[in-house]
Amino acid sequence: MEWTELTSAASDSDGRISVDELQLSAIEIDLLRAGLLQWGGPANAPNEFAVAMGFSDATSMVSDCMQIRRSLGVDGALTPRDWTRALLALELAFASDLVGAGYEWSTTTGLSDEGTVQSLRSVQRKLAGIVFPAMRGGALRPARDGAVE
């Protein structure tokens, strides 16, 4: 499915886009959920980092990641902003030793680095039509009062 179709489909409803619309496999959904679960575990971001990722602060990042993870498990539909935050959370949890799980990834998730990279690349391709427009549109920009828009 073309990304233009996905963005117009999202604007016709409540803005949420389902895993079915994105054609994400069960393995890809599990990978996203594993990445989100790392926050509050081995992955730990300072406030500035959390804000750059579209969260209000580090504390809300943990609770928001758990909410996004639950949504993926229940109906599999997220807003473009939450798809963007989920992808960033996965990428950093997997790759970063500084703030993510990094070299502990395979131990904490049970997923191999090789399999994760392969599935991550597929997820990135499938979400590109959602996350790039969301980023250009300022989906992760903090509001003036410190809350995230």
The helix/strand order is HEHHHHEHHH
Helix segment tally = 8
Mean pLDDT: 88
What would the principal axes of the Cα set say about the shape?
A: globular
Strand content bin: under 5%
Strand order of the largest sheet: 1-2
State the low-pLDDT regions, or none.
1-5, 145-149
Return the structural class.
Answer: mainly alpha
Which bin fits the share of residues in helices? 55-70%
Tell me the span between the first and last alpha carbons. 28 Å
**Alpha carbon gyration radius:** 15 Å
**Strand tally:** 2
Q: Let me know the largest β-sheet.
A: 2 strands, antiparallel
The structural domain count equals 1
Write the layout of secondary structure elements.
Elements: H1 3-11, E1 17-18, H2 19-22, H3 26-37, H4 47-52, H5 58-74, E2 77-78, H6 80-95, H7 105-109, H8 113-136
Antiparallel strand pairs: 1-2
Helix pairs in contact: 1-8, 3-5, 3-6, 3-8, 6-8
